[in-house]
Amino acid sequence: MQKIVLLGATGFIGSNIAQELNCRGRDWLGVSRSGGADSDFKTVKLVDDSLKKALDEKPIVINAIGGLKPRDFEENFESAMTEFWNLTNTVLNLLRDKPPSLLMQISSAGTIYGDALFTPSVETDSPAPSSWYGRMKLVEEALFQQLAATNNVPFICARVSNPFGNVNHPKHGLVDVLVDHIREGKVFNACFPKGAQRDFIYAPEMARILVDMIDRPVPGVFNVASGESIKLQELIQFVRSKLPNALIKETISTKTDVRCSSLCTEKLSKTYGLRASSLTAFEYLRNELFREE
């Protein structure tokens, strides 16, 4: 099968895709900003000659490279913008010189759409990001879509919801951070708006869906999510009901936090026949924190 280049192979989302590619025995090259070795694979840097050689073969490219979080833009806007712009331009220049046969852009669903006030967000909804992180993810989508169109490269944009169950990044993502802090006896700051809802997807299931998509590609924008939103307060109450002494502190959210993130996955289901069907966030918390029950 065709070679795959995975940009951001050690990242929050990319590491799960990497594990899925390994499980399937695929021919792939992992790329990260720092390079180095993981427990299961090694990666090369963006400037490595082996990456240029791989791009000569016109592989499938999955762009999951990043590293910035919403709070990075809040804490140091100029630094975050500079990092975002430099990294994005580096990748764009690489792919302009050596266009792939297919480009999949990994994006962020909740921050792109903003609040889903009445119905779940669909791919044709007008984006309404409330944070600079969300705005720059939208810019990123547009830049890579333009690159693909200019070079006649089929383009898939996967707008992913909130992955959990990421063993390589236990300190990233609300559910995994909650599990990590409770296990370590640390205070978990429940910082979200009143009535906040999120769509959560089990990370290995997310990776399975993404790899299935590149194996039978249909260009377009797709929500990759569970299709079910959970009230964050119910997650907290669930943990407190089992662990009354858990160190959970409710704090004030930022003005840019999305209150209700709800995603429609009908397009993904109709186009690819794919649907997330694994663990829910509640089941994951039960398995990780209350195994003795």
From TrEMBL:
Organism (species) = Vreelandella aquamarina
Q: Which UniProt keywords apply?
A: Carbohydrate metabolism, NADP
InterPro entries reported in the protein's UniProt record: Epimerase_deHydtase, NAD(P)-bd_dom_sf
- Asked if the record carries the keyword NADP, the reply is yes
Q: What is this protein called?
A: NAD-dependent epimerase/dehydratase domain-containing protein
Instruction: Give start and end of each NAD-dependent epimerase/dehydratase domain.
Output: 4-225
Short name of one Pfam family for this protein? Epimerase
Top-level taxon of the source organism: Bacteria
